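task queued by scheduler; priority normal; single chain, no ligands, no partner chains; default sampling; output format set to structure tokens
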Amino acid sequence: MAARQRIHSILCSKQVKTTLLFVFLAAPFGPTSVVSVSLALVAFVSLVFWMMQSSEKTVRVPQELSLYLKYTSILTLAITVTVLINGMFPYQIGSVVIKPNLIGALQKYLHLLRPIFITYLCWNYFKTSNEELIKVFIYRIYPVFLMINFFQIGFGWPHTIQSHMLIPGAPFRSQGFYGSYLTYAAALGFPLYMALEEAIKRRTVASISIASLGTLAMIACSSRTAWVALGLGIVCLAFTATPKQYRKLAGTLITAIVIGVLVSPKVRSRIFSSHINDRALLWKINFEVFKENPVTGVGFLSSGEATAAYKSTFIPDHPDQFVSHAHNNFIEMLSTTGLLGTGVWVAWNMWLLLICWRRRTYGVLAGLITFHFNGLTQVNFWEPRGLSMFMTVIGFFLFVQNRTQTTQNS
């Protein structure tokens, strides 16, 4: 009996519960999909079991989280309506009938529930302040991602893409375990800008070192859009998080750094290399598809199928045979969910940006802005790892901190 109680106390300890929570949150970043799904299931089932065993039954819901649930429900409802309509009246291109992906839509909806799950746990069980969460996220979790990433940069394992040697001694691109430098740019932008904000506020050796390494890793991914987004994020932080007396100095330093970087022939070569035509063709095709069905689009997550059908039907001899999704968040939403889904999606994102501004969480604000800027040349919003990090950050740093403020006011 004593041994059983001992095991029970260990399983219900704060260390075990915190570990389970972060395993669940980090699961999408596993080296393979099998590992990711396995980790997520084990952690989720363990957390649910532990919550059922807990003696604390009080359920408290922050006001803004209630609004999040309301607006997210409207977003998922709008997308579901487009899926159902396109399921009943499918769009046809040539001989190909485009079918909406209902199962894929349900999987994406689960990601949107992450902030609710995170906030519920932290409010009712973890009793963790926002400051503690920031320290854990920036000083413990983010450095682990960076260590994995720099190992990949140096040795090219497990995914190898040659870099442009922008950083001496870095023969490979930043990818981590994700398999795509674009995924890295989407997912790891959030902790980078939060680390930069922390460095601006604290000005400690640890915070500045982590922010510097994160910046180098983002540069090493060699994504041109990510480079521009990095500059945009730094400017955003310079004029929000930086004290007013230092803003002119910050602006001067940023200008000097940009000019210095552009002097590099390798950087200029990468920026002006012509690889945009294939994406421009995808944008054009998907916009044409949208114009054919402007209200509900052709079916959620069906842009790749629609692009292939359009090419084979209308431009079969086109030299560029690259087939993919729209490579632009906004055009992707227009072509697959029409004005109905896109309008609600844009309003949902604008509301999140407004919350960041009101709460003065400038690192998260810069992360959101640069995330959507990256989304001008890729569909990063519905990409699992990018969306997972997006929702994790929203949960931790916008809604959980409500608990700290409520406690201080009471």
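post-processing summary
- The two ends are 41 Å apart (CA to CA).
- The chain has two domains: 1-55, 63-275+329-409.
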